[in-house]
């Protein structure tokens, strides 16, 4: 059987096909990143009328600021908690739906809907659910002897934003885990069951290793999501409080730059945040990916 190979003509066509993506990348990533790095080297008044070149002084001030160091530790706790909770819940739901036969598509549709909710709306929903005065969950917790109040307790506030951010991301993780589970040959699981392997043994020895590529991909995506895309959740629920307990790095960039009008420090924080995310991604691909079997 003879196969035909299609070749695109040379000249301007390949560049024309790449041009839209290149233009979008330059306008919405390269240029803002360059502007942020340039402003991080300056000290300017809130109205932008005067500028002074200070070099790396803004970065030195950051790492000597206890509030900024606290924000880094808060971000680490928030990112780890959000990633673990959203991925574990998504995997449990995907395994439950994967066992269904007739109503699988209906359950999949219902579980995907929360992903369409904006982060700020998700924050408002969970703010009402956990409101100390009108929320249903604080009322139930009070019956069990626990006084919930995220406005005064830093632990309660952190749990609130983790729940809200994780709930928003569960649907995204669920889709990928479900697709990964459906791609696993059932003959492997059935053979292990015939050999007497327990359900937990089958999951840990067969299912979870075969889900390693999907798990690795979702781990990278969820870490980036927790550090960048959760501003709306924080702003709608706690606004970084109480006492800086939920003031993650991306929200501190907003608070110092748009509220405090410290533009140089805010730009330096955005550069550091971008460097942290890039470094985490590189570490994950260089070291963690080696343990992933494709």
UniProtKB/TrEMBL annotation:
Q: Where in the cell is it found?
A: Cell inner membrane; Cell membrane
Q: Where are the bilayer-spanning segments?
A: 12-31, 76-98, 110-137, 157-181, 202-228, 267-288
Q: Where is the ABC transmembrane type-1 domain?
A: 72-284
Q: How does it sit in the membrane?
A: Multi-pass membrane protein
Instruction: Say if the entry is tagged with keyword Cell inner membrane.
Output: yes
Which family, according to the similarity comment?
Belongs to the binding-protein-dependent transport system permease family. UgpAE subfamily.
What name does this protein carry?
Answer: sn-glycerol-3-phosphate transport system permease protein UgpA
Q: What is the lineage of its organism?
A: Bacteria, Pseudomonadati, Pseudomonadota, Gammaproteobacteria, Oceanospirillales
């Amino acid at each position: 059987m003879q196969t035909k190979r299609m070749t695109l003509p040379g000249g301007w066509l390949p560049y024309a096909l790449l041009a839209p993506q290149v233009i979008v990348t330059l306008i919405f990533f390269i240029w803002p990143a360059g502007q942020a790095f340039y402003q991080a080297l300056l000290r300017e008044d809130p109205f932008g009328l005067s500028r002074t070149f200070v070099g790396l002084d803004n970065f030195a001030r950051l790492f000597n600021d206890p509030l900024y160091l606290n924000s880094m530790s808060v971000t680490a706790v928030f990112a780890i908690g959000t990633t673990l909770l959203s991925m574990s819940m998504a995997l449990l739901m995907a395994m439950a739906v994967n066992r269904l036969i007739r109503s699988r598509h209906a359950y999949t549709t219902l579980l995907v809907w929360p992903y369409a909710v904006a982060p700020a709306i998700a924050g408002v929903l969970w703010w009402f659910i956990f409101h100390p005065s009108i929320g249903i969950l604080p009322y139930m917790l009070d019956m069990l002897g626990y006084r919930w109040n995220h406005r005064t307790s830093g632990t309660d506030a952190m749990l609130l934003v983790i729940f809200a951010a994780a709930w928003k991301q569960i649907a995204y993780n669920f889709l990928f885990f479900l697709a990964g589970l459906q791609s696993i040959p059932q003959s492997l699981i059935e053979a292990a069951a015939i050999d007497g392997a327990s359900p937990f043994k089958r999951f840990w020895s067969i299912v979870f290793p075969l889900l390693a590529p999907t798990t690795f991909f979702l781990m990278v995506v969820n870490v980036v999501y927790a550090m960048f895309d959760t501003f709306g959740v924080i702003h709608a629920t706690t606004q970084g409080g109480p006492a800086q307990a939920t003031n993650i790095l991306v929200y501190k960039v907003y608070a110092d730059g748009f509220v405090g009008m410290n533009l140089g420090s805010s730009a330096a924080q955005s550069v550091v945040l971008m460097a942290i995310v890039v470094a985490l991604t590189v570490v994950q691909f260089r070291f963690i990916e080696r343990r992933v079997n494709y």
